[in-house]
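wait is this the right file?? whatever heres the structure
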């Protein structure tokens, strides 16, 4: 048992070293493809997104092959054929975005500012046309424009990783985007047992047993059903945001804090 634990500590360090190196290589490759290959800006961004999708899917396979985790995914294939929509998820671990983008070949992801400053990944997010998590109406306007143009947008309504065993209150940006775009919301429920890669937890803090990640696609939500007299009002935003929080609270058996 102890030998297995030490193996997972060493293998985890190896895997994350590969991930960071892969991010740098993918950045160079994606930028080169976008600059040299013919096509529109959107076509070039889609190529870069497929590079990232393949890299993230491969990283999950590596983690599974090294015996570092197990995982189950229910219904995520529906995202490949869904109409332009907003995809949301709770955010318990560092690997959530890796699982989700590894399941979606083309998606415009809302990315926090720290990633845009990261040496390994800033070239990747620029080439893929990802959306910076800026404050104010610019973020909402950008996401609505992407969905209206026939694209999918992925964001985490909590804004950052969840507290251990709980949820953060959802920011209202997701509700505003969905109501203004009149689109479907596709909620993804993520759990990890035992917990690992939490907020503030170094990647080398390996749990005593191998964690299992579970991702489930819940029933889509029609934002139009939550409009007030056909309009996006502050009350409609609050009600939809509360409905999204309650959905996750009920599924996880916890409360937002």
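ok assuming it is, sequence goes like this
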């Amino acid at each position: 048992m102890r030998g297995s634990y030490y193996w997972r500590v060493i293998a985890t360090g190896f895997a994350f070293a590969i991930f960071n190196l892969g991010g740098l290589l993918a950045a160079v490759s994606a930028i080169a493809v976008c600059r040299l290959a013919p096509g529109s800006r959107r076509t070039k961004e889609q190529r870069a997104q497929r590079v990232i999708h393949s890299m993230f899917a491969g990283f999950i396979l590596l983690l599974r092959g090294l015996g570092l985790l197990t995982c189950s995914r229910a219904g995520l294939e529906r995202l490949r054929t869904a109409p332009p929509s907003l995809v949301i998820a709770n955010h318990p671990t560092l690997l959530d975005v890796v699982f989700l983008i590894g399941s979606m070949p083309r998606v415009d992801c809302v990315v926090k500012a720290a990633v845009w400053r990261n040496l390994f990944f800033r070239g990747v997010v620029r080439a893929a046309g990802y959306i910076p998590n800026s404050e104010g109406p610019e973020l909402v306007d950008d996401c609505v424009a992407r969905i209206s143009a026939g694209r999918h947008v992925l964001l985490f309504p909590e804004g950052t990783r969840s507290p251990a065993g709980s949820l953060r209150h959802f920011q209202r940006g997701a509700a505003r985007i969905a109501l203004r775009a009149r689109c479907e919301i596709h909620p993804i429920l993520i759990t990890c047992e035992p917990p690992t890669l939490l907020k503030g937890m170094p990647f080398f803090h390996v749990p005593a047993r191998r964690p299992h990640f579970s991702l489930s696609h819940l029933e889509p939500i029609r934002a139009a059903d939550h409009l007030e007299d056909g309009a996006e009002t502050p009350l409609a935003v609050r009600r939809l945001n509360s409905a999204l929080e309650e959905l996750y609270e009920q599924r996880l058996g916890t409360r937002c804090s």
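The chain has one domain: 2-252. so i think its the right one actually
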